[in-house]
Amino acid sequence: MELTLPPKVTERAFARLAEIGAAAQGKALRVAVEGGGCSGFQYLIELDEPAEDDLVLEGAGGERVVVDPVSLPFLADATIDFADELIGARFVIDNPNATASCGCGTSFSI
Fold this sequence. Notes:
This protein is mainly beta.
């Protein structure tokens, strides 16, 4: 079985989760991959309750990011960050597994 590196979460992403009070609500940031989008796969990013079989990445303040087992291989060694720019604020994913992505950054191909 091939060893895969889990995704990494930046301090900026954990800080944003703390700002919105996700942990206090019992929620985590779910990052998943599903079929669709203009490049074949798309990211699903939402606040959700962790499931029993999720990989849980936890920040120092108790903030959590969760990834389901099916999405994990697509997100191996990816970096989950938060960007606050003139065009808007959003969670972003730098995915070394993606061979192509769309202009909006929400869909990709492998």
